[in-house]
Write a structure and sequence with these properties.
With 124 residues, the chain is an alpha/beta fold. The chain has helices spanning 14-26, 77-80, 118-123, and strands spanning 10-12, 33-40, 46-53, 61-65, 68-72, 83-89, 94-99, 103-106, 113-115. The N and C termini lie far apart (32 Å).
Length: 124
């Protein structure tokens, strides 16, 4: 029986992995990595969240890439499936950005997005 390797929920660019490493190494207390999720809010309906992952909980999806761990909250898995996490800097800001095939719209300020679960997107 051939078992195909499971694709990660989220991919990280080299820039994102380097920034995750910097953040984890600079944390005041030991952390497992960064936790990524989505929450209701903003003018387009949802926002991405990034925080310290102090622990890995049951149901969490752990993405290990570039020597770092990013923990995806179980409630966000279907919204992030196939997404890429990048880190961008420009003259006025530096932030994680998500290139997500599940986005259906985003607001003008770039702070929130409209997302469909991957399952619904593929059925449409």
């Amino acid at each position: 029986m051939n078992v195909r390797p499971r694709l990660p929920v989220l991919r990280l660019t080299d820039r994102a992995a380097a920034q995750v490493r910097n953040i984890v190494e600079a944390a005041e207390t030991p952390v497992a990595g960064l936790r990524v999720g989505v929450k209701q809010g903003g003018c387009a309906g949802m926002s991405y969240t990034v925080d310290y992952a102090t622990e890995i909980r049951p149901g969490d999806e752990v993405v290990e890439q570039g020597g770092v761990k990013v923990v995806v909250d179980p409630s966000a898995i279907m919204f992030l499936l196939g997404a890429e996490m990048d880190y961008k800097t420009d003259k006025l800001s530096a932030q994680f950005v998500f290139n997500n095939p599940n986005e259906t719209a985003s607001c003008g300020c770039g702070e929130s997005v409209s997302l469909k679960p991957a399952e619904e997107r593929s059925a449409a």
